[in-house]
Amino acid sequence: MSDALYRLTPHQRDSLQRQFPRFDVIADMSWNLVETTVLHIDSPDGQLVVKAGGASDHHIAREIRAHENWTGPWVASGHAARMFHSDREAKLIVTEYLPGRLAQDHPSMSDPDTYEQAGRLLAVFHAQHSVEDEDYERRVNNKALRWLDGPHRVEPDLVEQLRAMIRSWATPTTTLVPTHGDWHTRNWLIDSDNTLRVIDFGRADLRHAAEDFERLAAREFLSVSGSENAFLDGYGSDPREPEAWFRQRIRAAVATAVWAFQVGDYAYEAEGHRMLADLLTR
């Protein structure tokens, strides 16, 4: 047994080996900032990806839910992986392995066609389902306040300013759709014919559609010329209503600065602080 398998719990190894009695570990693709183990394996069913969560993980359940309910159109068109096995209790999911290279830091990251493809795919994903939620804005505001209750390096005066601002916001009824939750080049694969495919549904959930614009707005839209217009051309519209978009961006900046500090990703933490400074200066 590969040493990488010992990063899985006994329950996870048992669940995996019952479903796939014979396999070889090709690579450990774990990110190592969080407690998720990601393995590339070869089995009689083909090459697969195993994702296993740690004790406090809640991303695997989200990923399983996404594959059960929302990835169907992308799987049918060959743009997302098919799920082979899942075990919520063990916090384990196994999907097919998709060919390609991450768009992040690849030449395709500067190609407008990449963003147009991403916009088209996201529009299909969002269009599957919608629900009106009267309580959504209150919940996400409270979550932002809880982030500020934890350990972080946001200046105390700014924390108080943010608390007062968030508590003052209106909480209108929100239309929620299936969202990927981490939609940017780190979770897009580009294959040899420049086709874009989607990975990592660990943050998938029902949210406002504009929330899938957030990562791009903080990164690629700022650094890649033409990317935002190409993405909007593919998506077909712009769901970013100014007041709701401002609230979303503040909440995202708070979560970024606090979460990144807590896991020791200091470059990402700096991005969160930059986002806050830019938004509040405007």
From TrEMBL:
Annotated Aminoglycoside phosphotransferase domain residues: 81-242
Q: Which Pfam families match?
A: APH
Asked if Transferase is a keyword of the record, the answer is yes
Carries keyword Transferase? yes
Give the transmembrane ranges. none
E.C. numbers: 2.7.1.-
**Which GO-annotated molecular functions does the record name?**
transferase activity
Q: What class of enzyme is it?
A: transferase
Cite the SUPFAM superfamilies for this sequence.
Protein kinase-like (PK-like) (SSF56112)
- Which keywords has UniProt assigned to this entry? Transferase
Q: What is this protein called?
A: Aminoglycoside phosphotransferase family protein
What species is this protein from? Rhodococcus artemisiae
